[in-house]
Design a protein that fits this description.
- The protein is mainly alpha-helical and 197 residues long.
- The chain contains ten helices and no strands.
């Protein structure tokens, strides 16, 4: 299992390729040709960042997280022919990872609000309060959220998905996505306020 890392803490992938004298185009070509060494190199380069994304959603479920990471990289390796070299390769992989996560969530996440008309409420977290806690502590607090709130919060805040798309991805209404986000914010606000006392 790869070690979770923060993308911001890593040198860019292009810097790694320059230092390794290994060109991305050649790596992808070799992976498409099913060269096991190239496939392992691609996994070694990109799995740590992907693992960090997966663990934000499945922090307490190591088995599910590993399964999702494996599924995501299977998709990456089998869909490499579709990569058009438009945009960052890291972004292309991240999209596959997030889609694999949402596929899993859609199958397993229960939308308890499915048959209710929900009115979202405002629950904004004061940015000054957030600045007082570490990034690691904030991620730990996010992991304490119920599954639906955590999934919507991650997709909206971390992945920048709109509520309409979140609703489609997770098989819930757009209004319910908004409610889950606001409930997540409310819960985080309470936890952060408690920490900062």
């Amino acid at each position: 299992m790869p070690e979770a890392t923060n993308i911001a803490d890593q040198p860019s992938q292009s810097q790694k390729y320059v230092s390794d004298n290994y060109d991305l185009t050649i790596l992808i070509r070799d992976c498409i040709a099913e060269n096991r060494g190239a496939q392992q190199k691609l996994y070694d380069l990109y799995a740590p960042a992907a693992w960090g994304v997966v663990k934000r959603y499945f922090y307490n479920d190591e088995h599910a997280a590993q399964e999702i990471l494996n599924d995501a990289f299977y998709k990456v390796l089998t869909k490499l022919k579709l990569y058009s070299f438009q945009g960052a390769f890291e972004g292309w992989i991240r999209r596959i990872v997030v889609n694999t996560i949402t596929d899993h969530l859609r199958r397993n996440l229960k939308d308890d609000l499915k048959h209710k008309e929900v009115q979202p409420e405002d629950a904004f977290v004061n940015s000054e309060s957030v600045e007082k806690i570490s990034h690691k502590e904030l991620l730990r607090l996010i992991q304490t959220l119920p599954d639906a709130q955590r999934a919507v919060f991650n997709l909206f805040v971390m992945e920048d998905y709109p509520h309409k798309e979140i609703g489609a991805l997770l098989n819930m209404t757009e209004n319910n996505s908004r409610w889950y986000l606001n409930d997540a914010r409310r819960r985080l606000k309470e936890k952060i306020s408690f920490i900062n006392k």
